[in-house]
Amino acid sequence: MKRREFLKLGAAGLLQPFISGCPTEIYPAIRIAAHSWLGYEFFFAARELGYLQPSLVDITETHSASVSMRLLSAGAVEAACLTMDEVLTCLARGLDLVVIAILDFSYGADVVMAKEEVLNQQDVIGKTLGVESTATGAVMLNAFLESMNIAPHDVDIKYLTIDEHFDAYKTNQVDLLVTYEPVRSHLESEGMKTIYTSRSNPRKIFDVVAVRRAEVENGNVQLKHLLSGHFRSVDMLQRKPDDILPILSNRMKLTHDAVKKAYTGIELPNLDENIRLLSGDSPVIIDSITSLAETMVEASLISSLPDLSRVIDSRFLA
After folding, report:
1. How many domains does the chain have?
2. Which of 12, 132, 137, 317 has its CA 20 to 30 A from that of 106?
């Protein structure tokens, strides 16, 4: 029996005590949307490794965060992998979401790239800059322009979804791009240069699992199973990278070395770190969320501070 087949059978066996004897309709699969991003790939890997049972977790792969947010808003999925600022955008629009886990902190994986070397303002002013029409894109764009002491009207901003970034560069539609892995690695191989990274804003951009509040009350088994699969895959990257690198490499269309390099651009908090950050009456991470929300209000990304008093629920980490 192959190792992967054994793992699948093992995962199914471990779940049987929770499922046997219970009508399947009691535990409908949690539907979660996610696009290709370093911190989200562990869900897809967990599915391939057999850590996630289709009867409990249904992953919908999207082309961008914008699509995931639309599906979440429309009720087509109950959960989504999003950056925290995207969650704040949803909250500001009236969508009641709860954060149940932190997937990663960007520490260089979100970047601004340029076709030519950028030495000063004149290398940027008047150029066409592509950026995703999301809160993360706006946060990175604003931070980059501020670092260059350039006003938004000094550049020609072109809004592009993440799946359009590579073609936009290849067809000379843009001079600069606000982008992220794995697209960054593909663009770098084509000659684009990284001129600004999220290392300049540590722990300001981070990704989470956001769930509709009604599902938090109903989805105990599914949500625990979802997070368990993620953390098992993250642990495998740390302890047995050769077992998971082929999966990550195949999905992101990068070499094993390129995948390893890409992951140096993010921090992956494990289960214990998530418990430390999210637990208690005043979770450690709440100050960062509040600060981010205040930054978004100042930048007119949202009109007012959303209610953050119940935005975190750590029950499903246990």
Report:
1. 2
2. 317
Q: Report whether the peptide linkage leading into residue 283 is cis, meaning its omega lies within 30 degrees of zero.
A: no
| Torsion sign (Cα): 295, 297, 301, 302 | positive
* 196, 213: one domain: no
Per-chain mean pLDDT for the chain: 89
Specify whether 146 is located in the same domain as 212: no
Q: Which two tokens stand for residue 62?
A: 């999207």
CA distance 100 to 105: 15
Q: How many CB atoms lie within 10 A of CB 199?
A: 13
Q: Is the pLDDT of residue 16 over 60?
A: no
Going through 23-136 in order, the beta strands assigned E by DSSP cover: 30-35, 57-62, 79-83, 97-106, 110-114, 128-131
212 and 196 within one domain? no
* 33 shares its domain with 52: yes
Q: H helices of the chain, where? A: 3-19, 41-49, 65-74, 84-92, 135-148, 165-170, 183-189, 213-218, 220-239, 241-252, 256-263, 271-278, 286-298
How open is the CA angle 269-212-287, to the nearest 5 degrees?
A: 45
Q: pLDDT digits over 82-106, tens only?
A: 999 999 999 999 999 999 999 999 9
Q: Which amino acid is at 242?
A: D
Give the CA count within 13 Å in the CB-facing half-sphere of 61.
11
Q: Which of the 8 DSSP states describes residue 312?
A: B
273-303 per-position pLDDT tens digit? 999 999 999 999 999 999 889 888 887 889 9
Asked if 8 and 49 count as a contact pair (C-beta separation under 8 A), the reply is yes
Q: For residue 120, what are the domain limits? A: 110-200
